[in-house]
């Protein structure tokens, strides 16, 4: 399936990713509008946008192993979009915090960002996401060459910082940071060359079947 909008052509998976990426925003807006009986609506929106940014960030990181281990090549076509949507939700998260919660009181915001450990981790992660988003174009890739590769490897420390940010922000015992931390740990393990090699040579039959099915050209 291919969708054409002006000069742009979108494959099925691209349409799916773009559509799915707007749904959380619509959902946040609708719950905010039609279910306003929340104890602290600003805190709720901060948490929702933060979690969506994290999930999309992890999905963008899962694209490379989906290609290298499962042979699911279409994932490469949506990696950048997923990363940019993660950035988009992180911007909404930051704006909810700074505009709605702290009414753009810049000195107070700055004081908080450099004094609370969960906000220091969040700010560093946000700065990494900004750098990755700005340099996500083909042009930057060509211009920066090897530096681009190194810069984009910062995505992993960035994701670790987000997990720390979540862990330190949430109440003790909240399962969320441990769950997403385990997903990130799994993705990091898949980058270890020895593990990568082991998986590709010892693929269980069911994984081999999935890989073959996913590796078929999209046109079939
Ligand atoms: C300057 C940057 C950032 C600021 C000021 C900020 C602010 C906050 C605040 C105030 C909370 C606590 C909300 C509460 O429970 O009261 C929070 C939680 C969270 N933030 Fe951030 N954040 C930043 C960056 C990020 C980034 C880049 C991500 C993800 C890509 C992120 C994801 C999260 C998550 C997952 C939570 C936990 C949500 C939950 O408790 O369910 N944050 N953030």
TrEMBL record:
Membrane topology of the entry: Multi-pass membrane protein
Gene Ontology terms for molecular function: electron transfer activity; FMN binding; heme binding; metal ion binding; oxidoreductase activity, acting on diphenols and related substances as donors
GO cellular component terms given for this protein: plasma membrane
Domain Ferric oxidoreductase: 49-162
UniProt-listed GO biological process terms: protein repair
Pfam families: Ferric_reduct (PF01794)
Keywords assigned by UniProt, alphabetized: Cell membrane, Electron transport, Flavoprotein, FMN, Heme, Iron, Membrane, Metal-binding, Transmembrane, Transmembrane helix, Transport
Chief subcellular location: membrane
Keyword Glycoprotein included in the entry's annotation: no
Cofactor entry: heme b; FMN
Entry note: cofactor: Binds 1 heme b (iron(II)-protoporphyrin IX) group per subunit. Binds 1 FMN per subunit.
Subcellular location, record wording: Cell membrane; Membrane
Transmembrane segments: 12-32, 52-72, 84-104, 116-134, 154-171, 177-194
InterPro entries with a match to the protein in the record: Fe3_Rdtase_TM_dom, MsrQ-like
Family of the protein in this entry: Belongs to the MsrQ family.
Subunit structure: Heterodimer of a catalytic subunit (MsrP) and a heme-binding subunit (MsrQ).
Role of this protein: Part of the MsrPQ system that repairs oxidized cell envelope proteins containing methionine sulfoxide residues (Met-O), using respiratory chain electrons. Thus protects these proteins from oxidative-stress damage caused by reactive species of oxygen and chlorine. MsrPQ is essential for the maintenance of envelope integrity under bleach stress, rescuing a wide series of structurally unrelated cell envelope proteins from methionine oxidation. MsrQ provides electrons for reduction to the reductase catalytic subunit MsrP, using the quinone pool of the respiratory chain.
Protein name as catalogued: Protein-methionine-sulfoxide reductase heme-binding subunit MsrQ
Gene behind this protein: msrQ
